[in-house]
Write a structure and sequence with these properties.
This protein is mainly α. Helix content is about 55%, strand content about 10%.
């Protein structure tokens, strides 16, 4: 009976630690979402300022090339899956694209709008790029949160099986 109570105590401690980690991850995700909202809002405001300065015809969808060959991503997304104690943990990483030759190198999209673009357009681009990095961070937090939740569920099932109604004495 003492080994069972020790086992129960160990399970309870592990559940408590996972619950604390869950709360930390939830707080981090909420902070990330608020920060994402701020970045996107600031990016849109800077874009609106640039449109105001240059005119709505000079900064619009009409300047964006319509060929799929000329429009490429500036970023590479890497997805890593690691197996941790029979659980697959997904981790995302994003980085600027690097190429070996200049013809393959992605062009800066700000140059679609001319050589001398308003500083607000560059600020807007920076805000949107920062939001991409933040989105991968939020995705990593969400993946860890999902992993913690599945571990919690497994531990609760294990704890419930230890204190089944057969063990309760009247």
């Amino acid at each position: 009976m003492t080994s069972m109570s020790k086992n129960m105590d160990a399970l309870s401690e592990e559940i408590d630690e996972l619950l604390l980690r869950k709360l930390e991850l939830m707080e981090e995700k909420i902070r990330g979402n608020v920060q994402m909202e701020t970045l996107l809002k600031d990016g849109h405001i800077e874009l609106a300022k640039a449109k105001y300065i240059r005119g709505k015809e000079n900064i619009s969808i009409l300047q964006v090339p319509n060929n799929e060959d000329t429009v490429t991503s500036l970023f590479d997304l890497e997805t890593n899956v690691t197996n941790d104690n029979d659980d697959a943990v997904v981790c995302f990483d994003i980085s600027l694209k690097k190429s070996s030759n200049e013809t393959d190198e992605p062009k800066d999209p700000v140059k679609w709008f001319g050589v001398l673009v308003p500083q607000n357009l560059r600020k807007s681009q920076k805000r949107f790029q920062e939001s991409i990095y933040l989105a991968t961070k939020i995705a990593n937090v969400q993946a860890e949160l999902t992993s913690v939740l599945s571990k919690l569920k497994a531990l609760r099932v294990q704890k419930d099986s230890l204190c089944s109604p057969n063990d309760i004495k009247t």
